[in-house]
Design goal:
Largest sheet: 5 strands, antiparallel
Number of helices: 0
Helix content: under 10%
Distance between the termini: 41 Å
Shape: elongated
Structural class: mainly beta
Strand content: 35-45%
Length: 79
């Protein structure tokens, strides 16, 4: 079963303020591997108030190059 690495990046004003170490996505016994449901936690202590972008990246080295990278962006505000 694949365990592709997932990495989180955090941006503010177009500049990177955090980059996690890639960690393996655990598929927790799922058999339909087209979409793997996963979750995690990211502690945001000490972030200055403002607008941020969270970028999640999963890379599957076993997939064809066209499908090997999945990305998701989310914006949020710290008050």
């Amino acid at each position: 079963r694949p365990h592709p690495p997932m990495q989180a990046e955090l941006y503010r004003d177009g500049k990177s303020v955090f980059q996690s170490t890639p960690r393996a996505v655990e598929n927790t016994g799922q058999t339909a591997l087209k979409r793997i449901v996963c979750g995690g936690q990211l502690q945001l202590n000490g972030l200055a108030p403002g607008d941020y972008l969270l970028h999640l990246i999963v890379t599957d080295s076993l997939a064809k190059k066209k499908y090997a990278r999945a990305e998701q962006w989310m914006d949020f505000t710290v008050r």
